[in-house]
Design goal:
By secondary structure, this protein is of the alpha/beta class. 43% of the residues lie in helices and 17% in strands. A five-stranded parallel beta sheet has the order 2-5-1-6-9, covered by helices on one side. A two-stranded antiparallel sheet has the order 3-4. A two-stranded antiparallel sheet has the order 7-8. The radius of gyration is 20 Å and the shape is globular.
Length: 309
């Protein structure tokens, strides 16, 4: 993280004087990390399971895809699986004390199916991997993906619980454990925190959920409370199990997310419970210079939250 200049004044100065340089610095840093991780996987050789965990809006989907693409370029055929596809049917999900379903717990996953699937893949067997239907709330009985893992192939398994020993201890073979997150805050030159790590992830999620899921800011705030509890309980205690950590911050992201975020944070629909935090975030984002979202490269991780140009 030493090579990241995450100071507000530096970001704004480059946003005004050389926006292309600001963007290129962030994008190159992330691409170099992906290349380094892929080099390590290629050097390991043999069938490999890559476990990729990270909190909400850390960029798991994009990182898994980019790792897969880079590995494929280097001759390692790679498949990507999501732990979400191993959910139990909704009716079988464990319950919280208040009687609601606990979707965050590792025991909401079909652990037996996961163990059978991954270890069959490591033996070179042809496996039908599940596809979860989130609308129906159950595993699809018609849709599945058929995979046969060659001797030098890799599988990337991404999800909240990918570093949890309840999951990883069931794998009878080589694993490389990766933890990704936004791991830097943004400060001003006096050392005051302008946006913390969770703030940056929340802004990403808020913009994405509104654009792609029709979610109001109020709804994102309501969901975020449970998400944060789940991360604290089921993810963060295991992040030290990772072999590799990836910091997915793109220091120019407040500049390109700013306009969309400010409109949402100024919504009259935000309830009183979240109003003060929304106002605090609004004031923080106002401090950043604007950058047109069209400047964000098509292959940037930030496209996961902004969408295509």
């Amino acid at each position: 993280m030493a090579n990241i200049n995450n100071e507000l004044e530096y970001i704004n100065e480059l946003a005004l004087s050389s926006p292309s340089e600001l963007i290129e610095k962030s994008e190159s840093r992330y691409k170099n990390i992906i290349s380094d991780v892929c080099r390590r996987i290629c050097e390991d050789g043999g069938r490999e399971i890559v476990m990729l965990a990270g909190p909400s809006s850390s960029g798991k989907t994009t990182t898994a895809r980019k790792l897969s693409e880079e590995l494929s370029k280097n001759g390692v055929k790679t498949y990507v699986l999501s732990l979400d596809d191993f959910y139990l049917d909704r009716k079988d999900i464990p319950l919280l004390p208040d009687g609601t379903s606990d979707f965050e717990t590792v025991y909401a996953l079909d652990l037996k199916l996961f163990e059978e699937t991954v270890n069959a893949l490591l033996r070179g067997a042809t496996v039908k991997t599940p596809v979860f239907d989130f609308i129906e709330g159950k595993r699809s009985r018609e849709s599945f993906n058929e995979i046969t893992l060659g001797e030098t192939d890799a599988v990337i398994i991404e999800g909240l619980h990918a570093l949890n020993p309840v999951i990883t201890d069931k794998i009878d073979g080589k694993t490389l454990k990766i933890y990704i997150s936004v791991s830097s805050r943004i400060y001003d030159r006096n050392g005051k925190i302008i946006l913390n790590k969770r703030n940056l992830r929340f802004v990403r999620r808020m913009v994405r959920d509104h654009k792609f899921r029709g979610s109001t800011v109020d709804n994102t705030y309501k969901l975020w409370k449970n998400v944060a509890v789940g991360e604290d309980k089921y993810l963060f205690p295991y992040r030290d199990n990772a072999d590799i950590r990836i910091n997915t911050i793109h220091i120019y992201e407040p500049c390109v997310l700013k306009n969309a975020a400010l409109k949402l944070l100024n919504s009259s629909e935000i309830s009183k419970e979240y109003k003060s935090d929304a106002q605090r975030l609004y004031k923080a984002l106002e401090m950043f210079e604007d950058l047109d979202a069209k400047l964000v490269p098509d292959d940037s991780l930030l496209r996961e939250f902004l969408g295509n140009r």
